[in-house]
Amino acid sequence: MTAVLWVVLPGLLGAPVLAALPGWRAAAVGNIVVCGAMFLAACHLALVWPGERAGPDGLGVVMALLTGLVGFTTAWFSRYFIAAEVAAGRIGPRALRLYHGGFAGLLGLLAGALLTNDVAVTWVFLELAGLLGAGLVMLAGTGAARAAGRRSFVLCGVAGMLALFGVILLHVATGPGWSAMRWQGLGQGLGPGLAGAVGGNGGLAGLAFVFLLVGYGTKAGLVPLHGWLVDAIAEGPAPVSAILSGLVCNVALVVLLRLRGAFAPGTALILLGLGSVLVGAVCVWAQRDVKRVFGFAGIGQNGVVALAFGLGGPAGNFAGLLCMILGTLARTAIFQSVGCAAQVRGGQTMGALAGLSRGQPVLGMTLAAGVVALAGLPPFGLFAAWFMLVSETTRAAPWVSPVLVLALAAGGWALMTKLLHISFDTPPAGARAAPVGAMVLAGAWFDLALVLLLGLAMPAAVLAVLRQAAGP
């Protein structure tokens, strides 16, 4: 339990300290320190976790480690991103204090949601994280950002209320006491109250599942419950976009996987996931705003994960977990690259970023590597993860397999087409050719290196940990 607190507390305790610092430079460095401490504590937890069976499950530990890693690399990029925003006069002192405090607090809340063993406490952490994320989107300062933040606040708030009602119904269905409301009890069928509810009082338990699925499906950005996500990603600051697209949705997907152990909602997750993959692939083609392109691509990735979790079993859960980890790392690198490119070019439309590889070759190649990874092309790890998923789909749900393959191919083709336009179209008149420092993109390179490594040669120890985390 002490190791868990060391992961959660840096963000929660560091948030008010960072918000109180008078200078943005000190707050930016402090944010890196806080996120770095959280990542190191997550590494320590991963090492000692096998001996702490009373603590969180392996899935929570692995995802907390991913949260710490993405938080640290994004905080590193954020220091340079914020410096450019301050130099351009696009963000004020008050917003800066709220930004750094909110960034650290958001990561702490997400870590708490992953590592707690209580269904209700998970809801509290994730609901607070959603509200804080909406506030961070508004800090971009534009009218569109404020509108997107309000939309996120309302839709995620309503989703949170639905999920809370589901938690209450679940508690009623399992009978008095909270012992059956622990994730490990739900996932392993250890709650006798829940077993009785599902077996003898299925109506109440089924109603609870519907509310939980709608509530957490909204927070995961699954179609048709995705109305808040793309706008928030497109209008928020680039570091916040990376956190929202990956980490916030990841926690909701983890909740859905844990619920599967109690309710076995295979068909529902498969349909939501398949719909998300299809809509994400189609919508990528129609976008002219680059961040919206990758926002819809992220919805497709979340759909792939949901579909894999819906299939269930060791192979389906493992493929879903691997897709979630690798997709998060690739999207983090992409949003860092896009945020940097938008500052250099003064816009984030396809036209504004055209010819990026000509004027900023290092930045263009970093973005290209991220897009190739997200499109599921070898040698990056998502190719292997998708291959496993398609193989398992063909075995367990053959009616899904052809649609899934076509949707993945269409989405990958759309991403590569957008990449060709960004990289090689004629740059707009007056486009700056200012070089981008290597330190700015160091975090993105580290993320992409992990995606490449896990695709080429996954260490046996990592494979064993991921299989254990994926569960039966």
Largest sheet: none
Low-confidence segments: 187-201
Element pattern in H and E = HHHHHHHHHHHHHHHHHHHH
Instruction: Give the % helix.
Output: over 70%
Number of domains: 3
Task: Give the distance, in angstroms, between the N- and C-terminal Cα atoms.
Answer: 25 Å
The count of strands amounts to 0
Strand content: under 5%
Global structural class = mainly alpha
- What average pLDDT do the residues reach? 87
Shape: globular
Number of helices: 20
From the alpha-carbon coordinates, what is the Rg to the nearest angstrom?
A: 21 Å
What does this structure look like?
With 472 residues, the chain is mostly helical. The chain folds into three domains: 1-115; 121-127 and 140-263, no CATH class; 265-472, no CATH class. Helix content is 79%, strand content 0%. It has 20 helices and no strands. It has helices at residues 2-20, 24-48, 58-87, 93-115, 119-138, 143-174, 183-187, 192-200, 202-219, 229-235, 238-263, 266-286, 290-311, 313-345, 356-359, 361-374, 381-396, 401-424, 442-456, 460-470. Helix 2 (24-48) runs parallel beside helix 4, helix 8 (192-200) crosses helix 9 (202-219) and helix 14 packs antiparallel against helix 19 (442-456). The longest helix is centred in the last third of the chain and has 33 residues, at 313-345. The protein is globular, with a radius of gyration of 21 Å. The two termini are 25 Å apart. Residues 187-201 have low confidence and may be disordered.
